[in-house]
Specification:
With about 140 residues, this protein is an alpha/beta fold. The protein is built from six helices and five strands. The chain has one domain: Response regulator (Rossmann fold, 3-Layer(aba) Sandwich). About 45% of the residues lie in helices and about 15% in strands. Strand 3, helix 4 and strand 4 form a beta-alpha-beta unit. The longest helix is centred in the first third of the chain and has 13 residues. It is globular, with a radius of gyration of 14 Å. The two termini are about 25 Å apart.
Length: about 140
């Protein structure tokens, strides 16, 4: 299992100029930037935002090939964002990441909305495997 560690800075133009991108949503700046760099370096151009509302606004202009969102965020949380995106874009791939312990009922509910539910700290190998599989 590989855990996140700091990576060299990514080229900022790579994350915003590709025609196909992964949208990463997390209110934790450090964690979000680490995962964004990981994705960029693995060949998955990434745009990252700090809130569910920003993610919905961005999806109104440009649809990503995959959305990765944290569960617990102020305002529109990851679960609400996932529901909105699933309603608006039924074929959009969605991954949820969370540090929160999930009881069986909530996990089943989340699995009905998201294609994958992953725990923090993020296992980089597992995340990249799921991104590669879902972002075809």
């Amino acid at each position: 299992m590989t855990l996140l560690s700091p990576l060299p800075e990514a080229d900022p133009m790579a994350s915003c100029c590709g025609s196909s991108f992964v949208l990463l949503v997390d209110d934790d700046d450090i964690g979000r930037e680490s995962i964004a760099r990981l994705l960029d370096h693995a060949g998955h151009p990434c745009i990252d935002v700090g809130s569910g509302r920003e993610a919905l606004d961005l999806c109104g202009d440009r649809l990503p090939r995959l959305v990765i969102t944290d569960l617990c965020m102020p305002g529109l949380d990851g679960q609400g964002l996932g529901r909105c995106l699933r309603d608006r874009f039924p074929g959009l791939a969605l991954i949820l990441i969370t540090a929160q312990p999930l009881d069986e009922g909530l996990l089943v509910e989340l699995q009905n909305t998201f294609d994958e539910v992953l725990s923090k700290p993020v296992d980089c190998d597992r995340l990249l495997d799921r991104v590669s599989h879902l972002a075809l």
